[in-house]
Please model this.
Amino acid sequence: MMSMSPLITGITVLLCVTMLGAAVVAIRAKAMPIAILAAGLVSLVASILFLVLASPDVAMTEAAIGSGLTTFLFFFVLARIRAAGHDDAEMDADSPDGGKNDGVRT
Amino acid sequence: MMASLLSVIGGVLLVAGAAFLLLGGLGLVRMPDVFNRIQAGTKATTLGTLLSLAGIACLQPAWTLKLALIGLFILFTNPLSSQVLARAAHRAGADKSPLTAVDLLAKDQLADDPKGDRA
Amino acid sequence: MAEFFVSESLIYLAAILIGLAFLLALFRFLKGPSTADRVVAFDVLTIIGITAIALLALLEGRGIYLDVALVYALLSFLGVIVIARYLERGL
Model:
């Protein structure tokens, strides 16, 4: 990468800053779905970053596994935990109504 | 000469698509509630992505088939996902903007589905 | 390749606009008060990422990069569907 154009350098800097911000959200978020979404965003940015590094096969694997399958799996498991009656999976710990409104009239 | 004209058209389409993406992002920041953000965030970005892909297809005519496939996927799936997301937000009781005038979905659900267990 | 450089400044301008759009959607993702806001921002970020991948393929001149954009065009839809089903407690 001796001759990176300024545009590619700018894209790389933007992607790295995004990745750091998403990682901080993934660590510090109170609600679990937000943390999972932020982890998915880290995978998305990592995939584009692999593409900048000229490895489309790794980028495709990261897209399918990291951003797709892991996020789906986390949400399925979270729904299972919520169905088992634990409080960890409440949807909006930091929403304005504090997760009081469960949404569905059962 | 013809290829030059095509490349200029492609560049203009690409910039127009990027401008629509920027407008979509701006709407995502500026809109007051979830439903307006869904409106701004999906319609403007769908148009912006399709225009950008068309511009790239003009710049590299050999990639037209694959770009058309990506555009077709986005054209079919993006309105569907925005609709599902809006329904989920409505059902989860998202806050509405105080300017919201009418909520026909809540009225419909109260009218013909009083238990609210329709999937 | 001489015709390609006619619109090079336009490609640069488009890349800068896409970067700004990415930053705006990222702001909504970091700030967004509720989960639904963040899901919308994530969807928009994925779509902007598809456009960025296509633009990167154009810049590098490698058509194989478009396969990654195709994977994302499928996965963003499935991801939003799964998250929406989770949010409306139907999963």
